[in-house]
Specification:
It contains 13 helices and six strands. About 50% of the residues lie in helices and about 10% in strands.
């Protein structure tokens, strides 16, 4: 298919590979390159940050040389990059691909996937003065996730930035963010062809532990030290993500170095459970193919390729 210019006519059918962290999405995407000339569209809210490489499990330089990636290293830590930014950028990346090149959306950030596939909602106007005063409160408030859950039953978890936004919208508009997302949604930019990777809990927990060990061996602590040395605040966007938050706490003396692997593992397991719940219930408007990620990536890629060849259009 020639993807260039198709967005304005008929929305393209695009493979979307989702699943929890450490389930093996990147490995499967790289294996798919044996079958398709593909470009990976990274739908990962952590990999957009420059300099946060180890803790976000970004593809290596060799992997990026073998398979082109879009959506990596877009902003500096501390800068805001929303699901809306991603949807607009990803639509442009897909439209610009040359004839014959297949875009494959790969990631675990559900709100990014949903914004691209199902459309953005039109956020209600928020009075700037009241919003600024509320942001001063949320910026210093502990337990924001609990507030977000109380104010919005549809709150699906996420980082401090998402919790703060959920609280702001609920308090300033009188309606929870999930309500606005249901009632003020525009159309998406692609027709998603979802492939959801899952793994037995024991398998996923083992992979999480192996990934954390590899990250710490590769220099996660030194990576965070370098970011902080550049003057990035310890609670900046990006550093509030799983793995980085715990490493910052370790460097500030709030968490012992020996306790760091276990702390990251516990937070990652919780995050993976939230992702699995989200993808199980929030993939809208399209069939979902669910595959066992316990198989080798090459075998999974072969199955995906065969299913794609027999898909309906």
């Amino acid at each position: 298919m020639n993807w260039s210019g198709v967005l304005g006519a008929r929305k393209p059918l695009v493979p979307v590979l989702v699943g929890p962290t450490a389930v093996g999405k990147t490995a499967v995407a790289l294996a798919l390159a044996q079958y398709w000339p593909l470009t990976v569209i990274s739908a990962d809210a952590r990999q957009v940050y420059r300099g946060l490489d180890i803790g976000t499990a970004k593809p290596s330089a060799a992997e990026r040389a073998a398979v082109p990636h879009a959506g990596l290293d877009l902003v500096d830590p501390g800068q805001r990059y929303s699901a809306g930014h991603f949807a607009r950028d990803a639509a442009g990346w897909i439209a610009a691909l040359p004839a014959g090149r297949v875009p494959v959306v790969v990631g675990g950030t559900g709100f990014y996937v949903r914004a691209l596939a199902d459309g953005l909602f039109h956020e209600p106007p928020l009075e700037p003065g009241r919003r600024d005063r509320l942001r001063q409160w949320t910026g210093a408030r502990e337990g924001l996730a609990r507030w977000a859950t109380r104010l919005d039953p549809g709150y699906g978890g996420g980082g401090r930035q998402r919790a703060a936004r959920t609280v702001e919208v609920a308090l300033l508009t009188g309606q929870p963010l999930s309500w606005w997302q249901r009632h003020a949604r525009a159309e998406g930019d692609i027709r998603p062809w979802y492939v959801r990777l899952t793994a037995p809990r024991a398998v996923l927990q083992r992979r999480i532990a192996e990934r954390i060990e590899a990250m710490l061996t590769a220099g996660l602590v030194a990576e965070v030290e370098a970011v902080l040395a550049r003057g990035v605040p310890p609670d900046a966007r990006g550093l509030d993500a799983v793995g980085y938050r715990e490493t910052v706490a370790c460097l500030r003396g709030a968490l012992g170095r020996d306790a760091l692997p276990a702390a990251i593992a516990a937070a990652t397991r919780r995050y993976a459970r939230r992702q699995e719940t989200w993808f199980r219930h929030q993939l809208l408007g399209a069939p979902v193919i669910t595959l066992d990620a316990g198989e080798p990536p090459a075998a999974i890629a072969a199955r995906i390729s065969a299913l794609w060849d027999t898909r309906g259009t």
